[in-house]
Amino acid sequence: QVQLVELGGGLVQAGDSLRLSCAASGPTPANYAMGWFRQAPGKEREFLAAISRGGGATTYADSVKGRFTIYKDNAKNMVYLEMNSLKSEDTAVYYCAAHFEISPERVKPFSMHEIDYWGQGTQVTVSS
Fold first, then answer.
1. How far apart are CA 64 and CA 48, in angstroms?
2. pLDDT digits (tens, 9 = 90+) for 78-116
3. Taking Cα atoms as reference points, which of 61, 51, 56, 65 lies closest to residue 96?
4. CB of 95 within 8 A of CB of 45?
5. DSSP assignment of 50-106
6. 51-78 burial: b if 16+ Cβ within 10 Å, else e
7. pLDDT digits (tens, 9 = 90+) for 14-40
């Protein structure tokens, strides 16, 4: 199995930036496309961004495109989410997710139903 651990959440003010990290471990972490979701209180879990196995292709939800950037370091099995110009509506628990993918540069928006592994989540709170 693949284990995912998120770090970097916290309390910030509107307009600030924050970088989340996700450390992947296990027998074959490089065989997975990686992504990020978030879930605010009382709302459904929302897809944010995903990156291909090789890191050469990405996809973003419209709500964060232009503000958030996903990238990875394959040598370290690390995936990051750089969040800029944070707003109060970005307040949520952020989850790292892994989806098995055969093609090294194939990526598409993730569905909740196709996630193979989830991280435990990290809280991001943006005050206005």
1. 7
2. 999 999 999 999 999 999 999 999 899 999 999 999 999
3. 51
4. yes
5. EE-TTSS-EEE-TTTBTTEEEEEETTTTEEEEEE-S--GGG-EEEEEEEEE-SSTT-
6. bbbbbebbbbbeebeeebbbebeeeebb
7. 999 999 999 999 888 789 999 999 999
